[in-house]
Amino acid sequence: MGVPGWKLPERKIFVAATVAVSVAGALRWRPGVAAAKPTALAALALTLARGTRGRSAPDNALLAVAVGASAAGDYFMYREEFATGPDKDRSLQTGATMFGLAHLAYLGVLTRHGGRPTNRRLLPRLAVMNEVAALLILNQPRMLPILGIYGGTLATMAATAADPVLLRGSGADPTRLLAAGGIVFMASDATLMNRRYLLRDPLLRALAETAVLSTYFVAQMLLLDGMDALSRRAGSH
Question: What is the pLDDT of residues 120-149, one digit of tens each?
Fold first, then answer.
């Protein structure tokens, strides 16, 4: 069984919107980002909504929270991208808080189906987030409490998504993509923070923004498809 939804019209819209937002972000074309960013997530949400009856009520509730919190996070990160001064930092922290809530919802689905974040999987992921924490300590230590908690939450979700117990009996099931989704999400966030503090060249910043946006939406696709498959598999047993 392959990744669900590729023949659905909303998956084609998702691909087009992801390409559009990545290009618009690189060009700093605000109207393009404002239009394409919610379109991409809405397309994923529509695919997810098709499977509501095949999932348990708790999983549906948690996934609805994840999508809603991600939409709020997208809005504040959109503001962060184009803001200047104190509003830029406030938007980043609020966006991180919203995405932290989304990761907690994802974590709820994963733990409901037996996933656990062992030290062997968690420590390398925390190490990646520690690089981001080091950038904050050196540049804006006052933002560390909120962004540090966010990084720990993301690392825990990503480690749990990689638990092999989630693959039991799955064959070629899309749950195999959960681990990749967690890793790609971390790569997107790490790229965002490194661009924020280390990159000054306009071309490099534009390329980094393309990477941030494209990997973010790919990560959301992998996580939502994988969790949908995980929940459906449990419901069929």
Answer: 999 999 999 999 999 999 999 999 999 999
Q: What is the 3-state secondary structure (H, E, C) of 89-146?
A: HHHHHHHHHHHHHHHHHHHHHHHHCCCCCCHHHHHHHHHHHHHHHHHHHHHCHHHHHH
Percent of the chain's residues with pLDDT above 90: 85
**Contact 209/30 with Cβ under 8 angstroms?**
no
The C-alpha atoms of residue 185 and residue 192 are separated, in whole angstroms, by: 11
What kind and span of H or E run contains 63? helix 57-82
pLDDT digits (tens, 9 = 90+) for 42-101: 999 999 999 899 999 999 999 999 999 999 999 999 999 999 889 999 999 999 999 999
Task: Report which DSSP code applies to 166.
Answer: G
CA gap 68, 48 in Å, rounded: 13
Minimal CA–CA distance to 168: which of 235, 107, 109, 233?
A: 233
